[in-house]
Design goal:
19% strand; two-stranded parallel ribbon; 36% helix
């Protein structure tokens, strides 16, 4: 293995402030889910499915408090939104010795609910979060945000990870209409870029007082 790959593996395996993969609660859940599994690909699949299904997607559960955005805090909840679920999956993967990182984008939601559009005043979801996992010398994007019940309500197929295929959200509804489209990429990060996250929220949704969420 090239020295660059070794350095990359170590960098994206280490615990960080939000992706606190070395926290006992993260290690406990990670070990429980992957117990007896020797294949990393199967571990990735199991951890992805756990985060996707165990935490109901709920945009209205938004919090911007730093301590509550830690994986070790998220893991004790029943509901979470995309940023939280991506952070948690990232932490569980690193805890299982699988390199991972966060990727942030803006997505256009073509089937957004009226209640959400009323709050956001747009169909653009800023700073949508995915998790990227490093396996077999390549980065694979995973979107654990939407659980099966949420997908049924939106009339879209839920995402699965299999055979190193990406599980990403640029998909269509079952009726053939466009659901989500990635329209801007911020790039990949070892940890949540908190300052940038707040700045973008305030830029895109100036009518919302985000200080009340901190």
């Amino acid at each position: 293995m090239k020295i660059e790959a070794v350095i990359q593996d170590c960098f994206f395996l280490e615990s960080s402030f939000f992706v606190d993969a070395d926290h006992p609660s993260i290690r406990c859940v990670s070990e429980k889910i992957t117990r007896g599994i020797l294949c990393d690909l199967e571990k990735i699949k199991k951890l992805f499915e756990y985060v996707r299904e165990h935490y109901v997607y709920d945009l209205m559960s938004l919090t911007l408090k730093k301590e509550k955005l830690k994986a070790s805090s998220i893991i004790h909840r029943k509901k979470a939104f995309c940023v939280e679920k991506a952070i948690l999956l990232c932490a569980l993967l690193r805890s299982s010795s699988i390199p991972s990182r966060l990727r942030f984008s803006n997505v256009k939601n073509h089937v957004s609910t009226p209640s959400i559009e009323k709050v956001l005043r747009t169909d653009v979801f800023v700073f949508h979060a995915d998790t990227e996992v490093y396996y077999e010398h390549q980065w694979i994007l995973l979107s654990p945000a939407f659980d099966k019940n949420t997908c049924r309500r939106m009339n879209v197929d839920f995402l699965e990870f299999a055979h190193m295929q990406e599980a990403r959200l640029d998909l269509n509804t079952k009726a053939g209409k466009k659901h989500l489209k990635y329209i801007h990429q911020y790039g990949s990060f070892r940890d949540l870029p908190y300052t940038l996250y707040l700045r973008e929220l305030n830029t895109f949704y100036p009518h919302i007082d985000f200080f009340k969420f901190i």
